[in-house]
Amino acid sequence: MLTRPRSTGGRQASDEAYATAGDPPSKRRILDAALRLFARKGIDAVTVREIAAEAGYTNPALFKFFATKDALALHLFESCYLQLFDSLHTAAADGLPFDERLSAILAVFVSALERDPEAFLFVQDRLREIWPRVSRQTRRKSILALIRSILQQGVREGAVDATLPLDLLVAAFTGTLQQFARMLYFGDFKGPARDWSPALETILRRLVQP
For residues 17 and 43, is the Cβ–Cβ distance under 8 A? Predict the structure, then answer.
């Protein structure tokens, strides 16, 4: 199993979407510990005992806030996912031209990677597994649908290849970002994500351009 030393860039768990102002320190530490372990090892490979030990507590401390490990994982996923969607939706607002919306998507992606790479990877790697269990409200906020609509706009503006299947373009676009995130996290790319942003944007535009 690949592991990576924790790197938070000086953030505190309370700064993240999965911790609210009313959460006690013990809950914040449990959320932070669980996210790190889930991102590194996957949900099934992590035990309640590991989460509690990583957070510096015993098992009962976790069950005080979440009935099961799966309930904890679902809470983390929805919180991290909604933060990412809202950031993307705000940055790539309707009314902007395609070129600006594509640049905005990449800027949010880079920012998310630098702010909390574990949260980004957890959402991307567990999307298929957890998405069927998310709330109806969360289901209305689809990142893939947002990117698809942006690429559709690109087709209308002549900036995206209209001869290629749109769903395939969405897969190529998101897959490139996801794989870069994993490789950066595990050290295959050196330096902060922002250093790779210009090259990433060039590659993404080449993927979709006519």
Answer: no
Give the count of domains, the chain.
1
Backbone angles phi, psi at 3, to 5 degrees: -130, 160
CATH number at residue 93: 1.10.357.10
pLDDT at 156: 97
In a domain, 2, yes or no: no
DSSP state for residue 68 in the 8-state scheme: S
Tell me whether residue 11 is in a domain. Answer: no
Structure tokens at 131: 């998405």
Count of beta carbons in the 10 Å neighbourhood of residue 202:
10
Other Cβ atoms closer than 10 A to 154 = 24
Do residues 200 and 188 make contact, with C-beta atoms less than 8 angstroms apart?
no
pLDDT for position 183? 93
Q: How confident is the model at residue 59 (pLDDT cuts 50, 70, 90)?
A: confident
Give me the amino acid identity at 113: L
Q: Which amino acid is at 198?
A: P
Which domain range does residue 117 map to? 16-208
What Rg, from alpha-carbon coordinates, does the chain have?
Answer: 18
